[in-house]
Amino acid sequence: MTSQEIRQKFLDYFKSKGHLIVPSAPIVLKDDPTLMFSNSGMTQFKDFFLGYKTPTAPRIADTQKCLRVSGKHNDLDDVGRDTYHHTMFEMLGNWSFGDYFKKDAIAFAWELLTGVYGIPKENLYVTIFEGDASENLERDQDAYDFWKSHISEDRIINGNKKDNFWEMGESGPCGPCSEIHVDLRTPEEKAKVSGLELVNNDHPQVVEVWNLVFMEFNRKADKTLEKLPAQHVDTGMGFERLCMALQGKSSNYDTDVFTPLIAKVEELSGKKYTGILEDEKDIAIRVVVDHIRAVSFAIADGQLPSNGGAGYVIRRILRRGISYSYRFLGMKEPFLYQLVAVLQEQMGAFFPELEKQGKLVSEVIKSEEESFLRTIENGLIRVEKLIQQTIADDQKVLPTQEVFELYDTYGFPDDLTRIIAEEKGLTIDEKGFKQALNEQKQRSKADSAQKVYDWVTLEEKPENFVGYDQFESETYITRYRKVENKDGEFYQVVLSESPFYPEGGGQVGDKGVLENATESFEVLETKKENGLIISLINGLPKDAGAVFYAKVNVSERKNSQANHSVTHLLHEALREVLGTHVEQKGSFVGPDYLRFDFSHFNKMTDEELTLVEEKVNAKIKQNIALQEFRNIPIQEALERGAMALFGEKYGDSVRMIQFGTSMELCGGTHVKSTSEIGHFKIISESSAAAGIRRIEAISGDKAEEYFKNLEKQISELSQLLKSKDIVRSIEKLIEENTALKSEVDALKKEKAKGEISEWKGAYEQKGDKLLLVKRTSLDAGSVKDIVFQLKKEIPTSITVILSDADGKPMITVGVSDDLAGIYQAGALIKDLAKEIQGGGGGNPGFATAGGKNLDGLENAYQKALNL
């Protein structure tokens, strides 16, 4: 069976059992404060398990794109070094929300594996939860009894809490689980050692293929367990491992999930893949084909590589792949981007985002490859200097701080530094490097760490968002919890009627106040978590059950919603001016400005920017009324022409915002008519990533403020220039400045001529060589010209010029060509530059260095005399 057939058989089987087949959620999570990426199949169903949303069907099945590269579930370091760990993988799953439970889940799994897929029963083992006395949890006897009717009892294994009690996180739904393991070894291997001894012992051919989770508890923040009101089933089967089992392979990488990608790497690199675990070349190929999948799906779902958050994780994965291909496959030019087409052909039919976003994905990856390969080349120069200095200092270990700086500041892989150092007989301080890395991680954790307590529920009542229609409301707190972080103690509250818009869809969350006759609390931020609108306040009311008035900061909200509405008009105008290939790729909407990222492969011209501005402002002047469809079937919205964004997860019913011909699916707040926006002004247009342009703009009050400031500046310039014709006055100043600059340059050249004749006679004989060490106040350009002339005219000479022009220390070294094999200008300058607390470089014949310590020129002068 091909991997496509295996995937389809799974979905067809569960469809026949009454399950609704749903598409995979995006791999990147946009509005979940607890997770960056979908790391399991159940992520998109969290709200169902927590009771915050009603499931679309009691039985659901799907295949979910997952990414495990950070936090508790982190497989990154294992990828490439074994046969079955991956960053991105597919999780096949079937779900029951208060419908069937253990008996049916076990029966479905057994029938599918043995009956449909035909896995021999003698190759399977199952585990059940053995219980845990510390938690008052009994052995899962029900699961054991149900399994007995399918598999012999000697193949049912007791598992501990670590392996057989599944938890969503530190808190949340959890319960015992039953794993299914498959033994893929040869008959000879099985005869020597029973599979019973190898289950859950990291054997590459005795692997867990499916986990059936029986959710019946809720883990509270105080670590206690309480029964859920309904019992659920959450299963996850590793698609890649299943393909390995069904295709009779001993490695996931030998299945057709990976072989087309491996074949392409072989073609591009000229290296042959042999599948040897310890072979660095093979490890590199496995890393590359794994990582290209993770990066491609993340970019297709809207997450661009960047220096922070989820974008940093994606950049790190991609750079790891580039680093391995550079070091072990000899790939010095971009090539990973060429694998995207292979991935599209393999998976595009089932994951249309790859087909739709393929060009963008490959362009972004190519750009990142080019950038990081430059980083590696520049880093190699830095490493070489570091090695030379270490050797000169008669040391055997590269300085830890410099090695860490190469990694942390310049992005140079530490393992590459290690390899290069070892080639020169040096090492790096592994312990010191790990300590520096750990200290950095601890600092980062400390900055973001917070302790979140359990919810205190005052009333079980559905919370209602009223912020689309009003800026304030009478309300009361339905639940609250304490939060402690580095800034102090705060409280998160959920309100019965909340006018506060929660951060989402690019729009910032509302601020405001929560008050009554006796108390007032500042609302510092509003976010959404697991379907709840949560506002952060700076204290706990004495009477949390009292009636309050929630009031939004109106001026900030109005500015934010004006900026949000204008992004819709901007999106439409960009598509009209540049073409329908333009799609939103990210946005930020706040009260002060907006940022809009969109797909486009060229810098916009001034004419295009002006035309876009004009189109948007024309729509604003037309005073187009908002048409809001709060609960429209998604298919109807799309048929009407609404824009849906790739990487967003939409429900069956959506909210559609329409301003005339502009129609978008959007949950944000908006103006009632376009005239409320006031005026739209583009401040900048730049590159956000390969194939992605970024516009920053303002509207409303900020646009008015912008033009007032311009008017003030023009008035001040007019007074300063004593002219109303500012342009002509500045042109005249430029002409005068150019003429004066020419005169100054001519005077400098005359002065330099005088210096040259004087300096020629000032060389000192040092054995069979000549040395000139000279102090001057000439500028750097003049000094450079003189040194080049002297080193050409004076053979067997070294020239050292120390300048204090403009109060800044500068050292220039010239070595005549006939001494270039004996002395290196770059090495000499490095030693002298220490005296002025500076650095620099050059080539063997000429080098310069600037510094911070002007007084150090005297020490540098004396040191130079002793060359």
From TrEMBL:
Its cofactor is Zn(2+). Its EC number is 6.1.1.7. GO terms for molecular function: alanine-tRNA ligase activity; aminoacyl-tRNA deacylase activity; ATP binding; tRNA binding; zinc ion binding. It is found in: Cytoplasm. Gene3D superfamilies: 2.40.30.130, 3.10.310.40, 3.30.54.20, Bira Bifunctional Protein, Domain 2, Threonyl-trna Synthetase, Chain A, domain 2. One of its GO terms (cellular component) is cytoplasm. InterPro entries: aa-tRNA-synth_II/BPL/LPL, Ala-tRNA-lgiase_IIc, Ala-tRNA-ligase_IIc_anticod-bd, Ala-tRNA-synth_IIc_core, Ala-tRNA-synth_IIc_N, Ala-tRNA_ligase, Ala_tRNA_ligase_euk/bac, DHHA1_dom. One of its GO terms (biological process) is alanyl-tRNA aminoacylation. Residues 1-709 form the Alanyl-transfer RNA synthetases family profile domain. The keyword Magnesium does not apply. CDD domains: AlaRS_core (cd00673). Consists of three domains; the N-terminal catalytic domain, the editing domain and the C-terminal C-Ala domain. The editing domain removes incorrectly charged amino acids, while the C-Ala domain, along with tRNA(Ala), serves as a bridge to cooperatively bring together the editing and aminoacylation centers thus stimulating deacylation of misacylated tRNAs. Catalyzes the attachment of alanine to tRNA(Ala) in a two-step reaction: alanine is first activated by ATP to form Ala-AMP and then transferred to the acceptor end of tRNA(Ala). Also edits incorrectly charged Ser-tRNA(Ala) and Gly-tRNA(Ala) via its editing domain. This is Alanine--tRNA ligase. It comes from Chryseobacterium takakiae.
